[in-house]
Amino acid sequence: MVQPSLYKYQHYNYPITFIFTMRLIAIALAGALTLAAADKSMACSRVVMITDSARIVMVGRTLDWRTPIPTNLYVYPRGVSKESMPRGPRLQWRARYGSVVAVSYDGGVTEGLNEAGLVMNGLFCNVTQYRTVADTAGADTPVMSLSMIVSYFLDNFATVAEVEAWLDDNDFAIAGSDFDGGTTTLLHWALTDAGGDTLIMEYVGGRLTTRRGKQHTVLTNNPIYSDMQAIDAYWGDVGGENMLPGTVRSADRFVRGSYFIGHVPHNVGHSDALASLSAIMGTLSVPWGYTVEGKPHLSSTQWRSIADASTSRYYMRFADSLSDFYIDLNGLPLTSDSPILKLDTTAHDTLGGCVNDMLTESSGFSPIW
């Protein structure tokens, strides 16, 4: 019988397997302390799948919160007139692109996909410090409501490059209402276009900062993105095949998402890409009904979505639903004379497959300014 190799330390001989295990435990403890210090936010996760050919680009997202967030889907055609605030200095526009958007409380757009393949998602980040009206130098600076910011970019732009160019040349302040009994709406955003290019938008110390590139495939919540990258790099040295952080904290989910999207095949077709991304979003979801005593911000996943920029399909699944459903923009009228359409998801347990035929005409949602 072959005896295990021994490692001599002081007066004791330890098997190498024991030493390796103890080192992993020490690494895990150090990592856990780092992650615990970094995370005090609610849970949401975003992951981008780009195949090797770059012909398939999909964005997966989870929405997690401590209380129910009713979310309906709206399809807006081109040509609809909108504004960023009801009065005062504001942005006013007519939509250049049709889009499907997820609207929370029937009052604010959480995310969406436009017909050009641009995807935008807003995720909670409680270290955000917006540039508000009080911070602006002049009274003419337009104000952007948080309920309309996603609509503005989806309505007006086709690519991340266009968004970045507009941000370089334009200034605006942020305004928004609290929700869920007084919770301040603190967000950061990510946009991905049909070519796989991604732009992350964060307010740090009252200043809008951006990061652009196809390498930015994962976003969760706290801390700010640069700090999250440092945590991810730390765990990259550990190696995910040995150990991955497994809690529902933001940094843990970031590390898991980063590892898995970097280790699934990317030379695949559409169905395999969709299956891989769907499975990854499952590993980042928080189990239905799960709570942490004294930490309501670590909460159940209410729904997951996948915005397929390459086929103009928007997939969604509620946690208490039996199946996925999707809206296919290719099969809908998006011309300027077309109606606004709505999918009421109240009875979402009955939804499955393509739900284009279940959309009904609507006057649109009323923004919570």
Description:
- A hairpin with a 3-residue loop joins β8 (99-104) and β9 (108-114).
- The protein has helices at 16-38, 149-156, 160-169, 225-238, 250-261, 270-284; strands at residues 6-9, 12-15, 44-50, 57-64, 71-76, 81-83, 92-94, 99-104, 108-114, 119-124, 143-145, 173-175, 187-192, 198-204, 207-212, 218-219, 301-308, 313-318, 325-328, 340-343, 353-354, 360-362.
- 22% of the residues lie in helices and 29% in strands.
- It is globular.
- The longest helix is centred in the N-terminal third of the chain and has 23 residues, at 16-38.
- It has a single domain, classed as Penicillin V Acylase, Chain A, CATH 3.60.60.10.
- By secondary structure, it is of the alpha+beta class.
For the largest beta sheet, what order do the strands appear in spatially? 15-14-13-10-9-8-5-20-22
- CATH architecture term: 4-Layer Sandwich
- What is the chain-wise order of helices and strands? EEHEEEEEEEEEHHEEEEEHHHEEEEEE
Largest sheet: 9 strands, antiparallel
| Percent range for β-strand residues | 25-35%
CATH superfamily: Penicillin V Acylase, Chain A
- Unreliable runs: 1-14, 16-41
Radius of gyration: 22 Å
Architecture blueprint of SSEs:
Layout: E1 6-9, E2 12-15, H1 16-38, E3 44-50, E4 57-64, E5 71-76, E6 81-83, E7 92-94, E8 99-104, E9 108-114, E10 119-124, E11 143-145, H2 149-156, H3 160-169, E12 173-175, E13 187-192, E14 198-204, E15 207-212, E16 218-219, H4 225-238, H5 250-261, H6 270-284, E17 301-308, E18 313-318, E19 325-328, E20 340-343, E21 353-354, E22 360-362
Parallel strand pairs: 11-12, 19-21
Antiparallel strand pairs: 1-2, 3-4, 3-16, 4-17, 5-8, 5-20, 6-7, 8-9, 9-10, 10-13, 13-14, 14-15, 17-18, 18-19, 20-22
